[in-house]
Specification:
Layout lengths: L3 E6 L8 E11 L3 E11 L4 H10 L13 H21 L6 E6 L2 E2 L14 E7 L5 E8 L19 H17 L6 E10 L4 E9 L5 E8 L6 H8 L9 H13 L3 E8 L8 E10 L3 E10 L3 E10 L8 E11 L7 E10 L7 E14 L2 E17 L2 E16 L2 E9 L2 E6 L10 E13 L4 E16 L5 E13 L30 E5 L2 E5 L3 E12 L4 E13 L8 E14 L4 E9 L10 E6 L4
Parallel strand pairs: 1-8, 3-6, 7-9, 10-12
Antiparallel strand pairs: 2-3, 4-5, 4-6, 8-9, 11-12, 13-14, 13-31, 14-15, 15-16, 16-17, 17-18, 18-19, 19-20, 19-21, 20-22, 21-22, 22-23, 23-24, 24-27, 25-26, 27-28, 28-29, 29-30, 30-31
């Protein structure tokens, strides 16, 4: 039997008032106009309580501009008694008094269908009463090691939301241990008004420990049922876990093939203490396309586009075509282009391991080199934890490279490795959290019979402060090294440069490299090591518009171990952001902040999304 009751002991009332008045001009009916007055009086000066009542009240939320009729006010006033008392309970006030007078009559005494034809004044009179604290506060039984909220304890403010949280924690603890049907079956809540305390005793019934039962999938027409079950990866026969259900939904969502996914637990326990699960899916339109745009006053215009099929072989496989052209109208070499194809198949070795195959043809025309190359790469992506993804692959890259020291052709066998830890709150416009990406690409140069590798790390962190977290400090650090080879033998596009968007704004694109002696000639190349940092202070002026101040630093070294010949430069500037909902439009204006050319020039960068 479910029981829930509140026992009142020795209740006494008192009245003190301060008044806040809201006047609204309303028009009722086609010919009748009137002055509608709403008085809001509340005892005491606790703004938290007053705001809670305001938020709960339907009368105070009625929009006068919509010309409501008296029936609307009567319905809202009758509902407000329960809503306001609930808000007071939420603040630990259990002896409050609520009076809602409609032209001097208590709204509770006016029948719903007997509203007057005219209302001149509504008065809300609220006495919150004293704040109650917890006396005895228990939730039993609980699994070993369960921790209830610290605020659910003797002497703490007895807010009803804390009771709800404590019950949820208790039920959640049982569910986490496989007791999917755990529930509260008995509640005894006693308000002792003389002592201003609240005694709470909640009894839980965990029920039997369950295992995952039969999985049923509904709503799919294009994606095969067997593939959905494999991607979801719910472990039939294993002990029930709500976290496994969350992961299954996340895996399906990550494929991009579904607009919505919902795992519904059966109401009734199945045979042998099993819990049948129904996966309800709504499929997305299979085809999608998009584009990107970046503009720099030095680097020129970059345009990119893609076309994607999100259910290529009826198993939520993703096939994508990417094309991009950059350097249009720029002064940093010629025009670059790239055309790439990629194929991804989820859940090839278990639900968390995906297969990928990628191919790309590209040209990179930079001041120091021209590289035409074709690459093919295949491998596996594996999700180690909810926020940690890894990648391993093998690839073949063949290129023709033109530099001031001559022309050469080479073929590389590569072993790309990567790991990404992403704990940002929002990847496209982060305000809290951090992001770390590590990449290592060992390679074997079949043409020159040598081994080498390129290592690169990118770390970002975000922290917000101030009222409504309007100020965000964002920082980024980058470090890279090309090891096992020399500048002369390393692929030119594996070496590091600094300057321009992505490294140091305000400095011309890739202006910082190193001078090397190659074949007896002094030749400018990229470096074998790189250190970079970007610092930003972001301020949200409005919900859509933001301002940014930034400082960027970059250092390039000739030695893989960050020693030897090296140089550095810096840039600084201001930016404007306009939030589009899918990411902000970015405008940055920057100038050099180091060397002899401090503030000697201005560069402009326009793009979509934060700079990092």
């Amino acid at each position: 039997m479910n029981r829930a009751y509140l026992v009142d002991i020795d209740q006494k009332g008192h009245h003190m008032h301060y008044s806040k008045r809201i006047i609204a001009a309303l028009l009722f009916g086609p010919t009748m106009s009137m002055a509608q007055t709403i008085d809001f009086d509340i005892v005491g000066d606790d703004e938290v309580i007053a705001n809670a009542v305001r938020s709960a009240s339907l009368v105070l939320s009625i929009n006068a501009d919509e010309t409501p009729d008296p029936q609307d006010y009567i319905a809202a006033a009758r509902a407000d008694y329960r809503r306001i008392l609930t808000a007071l309970y939420g603040q630990g006030r259990y002896s409050g008094a609520v009076s809602i007078l409609v032209d001097g009559r208590e709204a509770a005494g006016i029948a719903p269908l007997a509203a007057p034809s005219r209302i001149d004044k509504i008065a809300l009179r609220i006495d919150p009463g004293p704040s109650f604290t917890f006396g005895n506060a228990t939730v039993d039984p609980l699994p070993s090691g369960t921790l209830l909220p610290e605020s659910f304890a003797r002497g703490e403010v007895a807010a009803s939301k804390v009771i709800v949280q404590a019950v949820a924690e208790g039920v959640g603890a049982w569910r986490d241990n496989g007791y999917a049907k755990a529930a509260a079956i008995d509640q005894q809540v006693t308000a002792r008004h003389a002592e201003q305390t609240l005694d709470v005793a909640i009894t839980l019934a965990p029920g039997p420990q369950l295992t995952f039962g039969t999985l049923t999938i509904t709503g799919n027409t294009a994606v095969r049922t067997a593939r959905i079950a494999k991607i979801a990866g719910l472990p039939e026969g294993e002990i029930y876990s709500p976290e496994e259900i969350t992961r299954a939904e996340r895996r399906l969502r990550k494929t991009g093939a579904f607009d919505s996914i919902a795992a519904v637990e059966a109401d009734q326990i199945g045979p042998d203490n099993t819990l049948p699960i129904e996966l309800q899916v709504v499929e997305s339109a299979p085809r999608r396309f998009g584009f990107g745009l970046d503009l720099s006053s030095i680097e020129g215009l970059e345009v990119s586009a893609y076309w994607m099929h999100r259910n290529f072989m009826s198993g939520a496989e993703r096939f994508r075509v990417d094309a991009g052209i950059s350097g249009i109208g720029g002064s940093t070499g010629g025009t670059d282009y790239a055309l790439g194809l990629s194929f991804e198949r989820p859940a090839v070795y278990g639900p968390d391991t995906d297969f990928f195959l990628r191919a790309q043809i590209s040209r990179e025309d930079e001041p120091d080199y021209l590289v035409d190359k074709i690459s093919v790469e295949t491998g596996l992506n594996r999700l180690i934890a909810d926020e940690l993804a890894t990648q391993i692959g093998v690839g073949v890259l063949t290129a023709r490279e033109v530099t001031p020291s001559g022309t050469r052709e080479y073929t590389l066998i590569t072993l790309p490795l990567a790991a990404t830890l992403d704990r940002r709150d929002t990847p496209t416009n982060a305000t809290e959290g951090y992001y770390i990406n590590l990449e290592a690409t060992p390679f074997y140069d079949t043409t020159n019979d040598l081994f080498g590798g390129r290592i690169f790390a990118d770390a970002r962190a975000y922290r917000s402060f101030g009222s409504d977290d309007k100020i965000t400090f964002a920082g980024r650090a980058q470090i890279g090294s090309v090891v096992g080879t020399t500048i002369e033998n390393a692929p030119a596009d594996f070496l590091f440069y600094s300057g321009g968007g992505g490294t140091v704004r305000g400095q011309p694109y890739k202006t910082l490299g190193v001078n090397s002696i190659i074949s007896g000639e002094d030749v400018r190349t990229g470096g074998q090591s790189f250190l970079g940092a970007q610092l930003e202070a972001r301020y949200a002026v409005t919900g859509k518009i933001g301002l940014v101040g930034f400082y960027d630093f970059g250092q390039v070294g000739a030695d893989a171990s960050f020693g030897g010949n090296s140089d550095w430069h810096a840039g600084a500037g201001l930016g404007l952001r306009y939030d589009t909902g899918i990411g902000p439009i970015r405008l940055d204006i920057a100038t050099p902040a180091s060397g002899d050319d401090i503030a000697s020039s201005v560069q402009v960068y326009i793009g979509i999304g934060q700079s990092f």
